[in-house]
Description:
23% strand; 597 residues; five-stranded mixed β-barrel
Amino acid sequence: MRSHRCGELTESHLNQDVDLCGWVHRRRDHGGVIFIDLRDREGLVQVVFDPDYAEAFKLAETVRSEYVLKVHGTVRLRPAGTENPNLPTGKIEVLATRLEILNKAETPPFPLESEIEVSEETRLRFRYIDLRRPVMQHRMKMRRDVVRFLRQFLDHHGFYEIETPFLTKATPEGARDYLVPSRTHPNHFFALPQSPQLYKQLLMISGMDRYYQVVRCFRDEDLRADRQPEFTQLDIETSFMDESQIMYLMEDMIRQLFTDVLHVELPNPFPRLTYAEAMQRYGSDKPDLRIPLELVDIADLVAQAEFKVFAGPAKEPDGRVVALKLPGGANLSRKEIDDLTQYVAIYGAKGLAYIKVVDRSAGVEGLQSPIVKFLPAEAVRGILDRVEAETGDIIFFGADKTKIVNEAIGALRLKLGQDRGLVDKGWKPLWVVDFPMFEWDEKEARWFALHHPFTAPKCSLEELQSDPGRALSRAYDMVLNGTEIGGGSIRIHRTDMQKAAFELLGIGDEEAQQKFGFLLNALRYGAPPHGGLAFGLDRLVMLMSGATSIREVMAFPKTQSAWCPMIDAPAMVTDAQLRELGIRLRRPQEGEKGETT
């Protein structure tokens, strides 16, 4: 139906007759001449309707926004002074000689100009309209470009693309499973995979050597800007490579991706931080290195102070006291500091102590703070020296259990960096390595795997069993601008080590056999050393496209309540369908919402 796409036309097409199809992006009647910006996936082109072509002109008078048109015309230069430098097609236009209205359209629920604010629910309800917007078309194209490059890179390096099942078995992997009732096996359920973790390990045991998959994953968890109930991973696994080799290959892939798609050069090599160092300096295992603020430990300076708010945590084994200097922050108002205090309270902080450095040369007398009078002068001087404070700075403090301090002051670091314009432009990738193998849950009084129970430890079997709290894992995360875009590890490939890991996690032989028997059995038949990594494709494209949510780079996402307003899902099903599955619904109890099975 068309000879060219709208956004493809250039001066090289001058004087050519063309056939175009697309949507009416904008119509302008300039008293005798009608201009229509015709839009398709590749962009816009200006089409001119002149009264000399009476039939086409008369039909153009009836055209409205989002009508679908077919235009026949001749490419010509725009008159001097009317060029549009903001459009790739801005130097030319098409003089229409014939026009066909392929379909009319009602007035769209919202204008398609990108700068106009529209509620997210409205955009998702009419997603097929929202996706017509140029910014969304650009994001979908970028997603295509990213996936195409990644496939080409992995194909070139000898990886097989292999699909794994969606209907699988519920396994404890950190989030709730989406369950699918089986009609042919009454009272039994499939689970949608949270990741293909076990299948890709089985593929290594199968001798596939190098595997990848662009795969949908499903997790029934509370949603945030970078979470969806269904999302896409680039899943990768390889045999006979250690973590350094895997990290080198994956880093090279991401570096080449940015060069190919964004024409951006990332550093070579990526910097590396241990988990312990990342938490110490930034309070986060996915630090944003664009923000030049760091947490500084001061427990040794305040442990003997009479100020118990600091001295108490400084003396506790699981306590931490840190200082965070904000250069030039002494001009913060009392209200701004109160707002920051409320902000850190979200993360469990009981308050936010501070010192304003009004005049560093005046010593303690040049400080403004409600806490200075409770601290020895020597401790105050030590703090100022350690954070390298200067006149005009403000120093914030966190003192509590280590977890609370890291989360609260780590979040404060990010907020101050963003609010004060301290975020460097560009890209700051890094690897975070040497994660703890396990973390202790005080409420449940047991160990949990920091990543997943198939991650290999860096220590021997005997060391793992004797002191699990000190064991480090062979895991690695790739972080970009404060967002984890990929994570992986070397896997356990020996039955005795996997059994020991399960025992430390409180998974006995019977439970392990019931939930992971297929993997444990497979490990007995010559499993090779193997490891891999999974990239969050949605997160990666979100960052690369400049979007603020993965919903902006997914064609048909859900809301934060895991609801699709466009098709109104999830929805009720008929009694006949339920009877086939052997399921009966009950009425919700008081205080419950909806119906439960």
